[in-house]
Amino acid sequence: MIERLVEVKQALNMVLLDAEWDGFVGGLFNRQNGFRAHARAGLVRADVRSDAFWMSCENFVQVVEPVLVALREFDNSTPAMPRA
What we know:
The chain has 84 residues and is mainly alpha-helical. The protein is built from 5 helices and no strands.
């Protein structure tokens, strides 16, 4: 999921820069828990616009991908290693 997030980084930035995003976020005040939702929307915008957020996402993908490859290799019906 994080890998996909990195893939759509540009699209997410475009959404946050769109005028309709501001209208959506402004309309959150009229809903139940609107203040909390508005605050969280601000945090989402700050994270997506942050280089540190994207760096941590890319680092996570680089660390986890080899582990997933190994798990896929060893998680099947045929043995991946011969018995000693």
